[in-house]
Amino acid sequence: MNVLLAAAGGALGAAGRYGISLLPWRGDFPLLTLCTNFLGALLIGFIVGAADQGRLSPGWTLFWKTGVCGGFTTFSTFSLEGLTLLEQKKWLLGGSYVALSLGLCLAGVALGRRLAK
Question: Which residues of 58-74 are buried (b: 16+ CB within 10 A; e: fewer)?
Fold first, then answer.
């Protein structure tokens, strides 16, 4: 049953990530991935905060945290895009992207936990 919960959540998360990738955006800065990772960080912070307070069952926590967030967030894509910008010697763009991703995602988890309270 746990595998099915994680798989169902993962499918939902992947569909959400794909949906965001269809938004019209042009430019070198990977804004859609940054937004996806921030939203995923916000969501996982909220889920953990709610689970810590006993407001989510272990099954729903697995569905949302492992499934949806695992399928939705794009850390591997972020890593590839950041490295590609740096390899292209787009230092300011690449450095900004990496720093913003880290800072916003840490802030998103903290904010998500706070919102869950």
Answer: eebbbbbbbbbbbbbbb
